[in-house]
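Predict the 3D structure for this chain.
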Amino acid sequence: MIKKYAKALIFLADAMAVSFSYWLAFQLRFDFHLPAEEFNHFVATLPIVLMLRLVAFNYFGLYRGIWRYASMDDLVNILKAVAASQVVLAAIVLFFWHGGFPRSILIIGPALTLVFVGGIRFTLRATREMRYKGSIKDLPKTLIFGAGDLGEGVLRDLKRNKVHRCNVVGFLDDDPALWNHSIHGVSVLGGRKDLSLVVEKYGVDEVVVAVNHSRGPLIKELMALCSEAHCRVQFKTVPTLEEHLSHKSAGFPIRKLELSDLLPRKKINLDLAALHVVLSGKTVLVTGAGGTIGAELCRQVLNYGPKRLLMLDNHNTALFYVEKELAEAGHGARITAIVGDAGDEVLLKNLFETHAPHVIFHAAAHKHVPMMETNPQEAVRNNTLTTYTLAETAVKYKAERFLYISTDKAVRPSSVMGASKRLGEKVVRAFAEVNGTKCMSVRFGNVLGSSGSAVRIFQEQIQAGGPVTVTHPEVTRYFMTVEEAIQLILQAAAMGNGGEIFVLNMGTHMKVADLARNLIVLNGLEPGNEPGQIEIKFTGMRPGEKMYEELFREGDIRKDTGHPDIFMAIPEEIDMEVLKEQMSGLRLLCELADPAPLLNDIRKLVPGYTGRPEAIWEAEKARHPGS
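Done. Predicted structure below.
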């Protein structure tokens, strides 16, 4: 009921404040013995003062704000309104009353008005703050790490958030100049070295990390400090200021930490103009559109205004959900979902003749290493021969660009999957600039949280109570988020001239065992072998797996692209006639039941391949130990 008449009530309160401050100015001027003549001056000018003040208040937006959120901006607006109205008032008084009006009133009056009108608003805010403090005693105790602009924004958001309510006990920050100061009444209690002491002293339940840069290494160190001190505290975070502004979100929503928060992430600089030239107004084909990479490609491509987005996948359920998501986001008129195999020559012929795609992103692939060890024919058929068929069709219909998404497992491959992807790179190199089509490859490592990834498996194992299975304590991998990977893929597509293998900067590699430990901690649990802890069990390397991955081959000629996060390798040239002969041979070998001839041929075609034919039968024995 009060909210309905809020503006009327504040207007009335302002009118009373202006009247009282004007009356008090006269009383103070004459020591509370107001002569009759001066009282007449007061009565005669009060309506003018009221009208000028209230009109100015309205003009400067004092009735558009919300009282309980009064801030310095409101105070500045009050000051502007009082000053503007006072200039007009002084002109009127001096023109009509000349020397008969006490001029000191023109100084005392506006000062008192500023005090009383501002006091109304800040009293309301102070009352709200007191109610907030009185209602949070039994709420979870929260510590904010980061006393900068982001931390201050988080505190303000928490104070008015009715969903995520908590008791903010203090800040921590690495800047000593902020220590022993306070923000909105909340003290800065020290730096990161004080974390365990503050957690113990105040009984902290959760730590909200509110920093904009170098978040990954900081969070890992904070988690390690708590682990060493045996502090059981939950870590959370919020969007950075850049993410907040780019997504135009309201407030700073607190969320649980994700593994991506632990990566040493940095802002990726994109050449937006080049991306618009390549994608805007074009028809774009994405194969494997139902997968993690393909789906994110579709999302990001649509940001650059393509004429049409063709989404091809043989997994119709996955494709259905991607199409549904994009249609609900308002892209329904620009997308076409096509169910089918990217290696189906008839389908591709009809697709290219109907839609004539300008840009092709080939993300369809079999990616699971152990599974491809026992299915080498399918690995080559899908990862190599499909790439050949699609690239051949693209250059036949004179597409502008063809980008093949490869993997770091193609470098000195120890698996059939890696070898099949390396053969795909050779295919793309052979088709470079045929018929004017710029064909190129992009090579990168593991994407966090992709379907069937180690992260998802670890999460399932943790929820089941463990153990979390890791192949070897020293095995390492490169990791990046899918959003970052796609941004760099698009940038590489824009800068490619044909024949290049672009290599994404994956940062430093990470031990998979450390990844598992971090994920356990993020779930609020402890790694270990004691009751209540989650065990990490080492199972041994599987066929086709390597201890560590590489991004360049020994024969690759490396070149600088001018982009700090994208490198370039120029592989050796491949004769098209030789390639056609090799593909024909592989096609015939894929039709055989015995995989040995195919594996022997792969060894000849991919000199760095270190896999063994007998690995297939070893894997089969592992799957069927009784046979």
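Residues 141-257 form a domain with the Rossmann fold fold (CATH 3.40.50.720).
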